Amino acid sequence: MKATARAHTNIALVKYWGKKDLKLMLPQTDSLSLTLDRFYTTTKVEFDPTLKSDQIQIDGQIAKPKVAKRVSDFLTLVRERYQVSDFAHVTSINNVPMAAGLASSASAFAALAAAATWASGHHPTRQDLSRLARMGSGSATRSIFGGLVQWHAGVDDATSFAEPIEESVDFGLEMIAILIDTREKKVSSRGGMQHVVETSPYYPAWREVVKADMAKIKMAIAKHDVNEIGHIAQTNALRMHALNLAADPGFTYFNSQTLAAMATIDNLHECGVNCYYTMDAGPNVKVIYDQADRETIFNTLAAQFGADHLAVAKPGPGVEEL
């Protein structure tokens, strides 16, 4: 009873930023993301009748108690759903910095959901895997699929899942991740977004912003308009981070290098290079552009941040069994 799965991170182009049901992990709004080939998690799960508890190893180290409990709690959901009584060996390797705003939890729980389910002897639909992965990390629901993916907020467990909008993204859409600071952030995604839901006076308007942005970005995707996709994503990200500043007390994930990167991308855009930025819960900036402009953008950013702090990412695949 063992299986190995690989899942890739995804970066939201239209973000949800807040949950309406913490137990079922239901988001306040829909969202839409791009799965990336560059960052991924590979996880092996083996159920073992001789174990007295789950044994969890991440990146070659025994998992810290808080992380181990989160993983074990998720495995308990799998055991209950598929009538498995054994504890498990879990070995996970992240090709992505953890807790740095690069969606490590998305790839981690998508890979865990798939590996644990397959190890139990079941191969459910990808929609069912998406619903299960959501219970570990909200954004993991999107990492079950490749390419451009929509997460339907839903109203209950059955209706909150992701589905692909376009899995074979072959019209030039790419990202460069500027790795400004890959240390663990001080304010977690989960804690930050709930603080915003509870205290930011602009949150009701945010729901309307996302509704409008979802309609616009799906039209842009249908037209394969990279510039419009980038413009919508950048505006959406800035409005999300404005919610953080308006919370009580206000906070930000940005640092001086984040602002410098944003300014550089704005300057490139003003010079006729079509590029845009988006940021999640962390200081790292993701640049959205057409692959035809990759060299110009990469060289400009490398001169400022160093080539070793840049990661070019193309659209990636959905979860795979290895």
Topology summary:
Layout: E1 2-14, E2 19-21, E3 26-27, E4 31-48, E5 55-58, E6 61-62, H1 65-82, E7 87-94, H2 104-119, H3 126-134, H4 140-143, E8 148-152, E9 161-166, E10 173-178, H5 189-199, H6 203-222, H7 226-245, H8 256-270, E11 275-279, E12 285-290, H9 294-305, E13 310-313, E14 320-321
Parallel strand pairs: 5-7
Antiparallel strand pairs: 1-4, 1-14, 2-3, 4-7, 4-8, 5-6, 8-9, 10-12, 10-13, 11-12
Helix pairs in contact: 1-2, 2-3, 6-7
How would you explain this protein's 3D organization?
The model has no long low-confidence stretch (mean pLDDT 95). The protein is built from nine helices and 14 strands. It is globular, with a radius of gyration of 19 Å. The chain has two domains: 2-169, Ribosomal Protein S5, domain 2; 174-313, GHMP kinase, C-terminal domain (Alpha-Beta Plaits), CATH 3.30.70. 46% of the residues are buried. With 322 residues, the chain is of the alpha+beta class. Helix 1 (65-82) runs parallel beside helix 2 (104-119) and helix 2 packs across helix 3 (126-134). The strands form three sheets. Strands 1, 4, 5, 6, 7, 8, 9 and 14 form an eight-stranded mixed beta sheet that branches. The chain has a four-stranded antiparallel beta sheet with strand order 11-12-10-13. Strands 2-3 form a two-stranded antiparallel ribbon. A hairpin with a 2-residue loop joins strand 5 (55-58) and strand 6 (61-62). It is 39% helix and 26% strand. The chain has helices at residues 65-82, 104-119, 126-134, 140-143, 189-199, 203-222, 226-245, 256-270, 294-305, and strands at residues 2-14, 19-21, 26-27, 31-48, 55-58, 61-62, 87-94, 148-152, 161-166, 173-178, 275-279, 285-290, 310-313, 320-321.
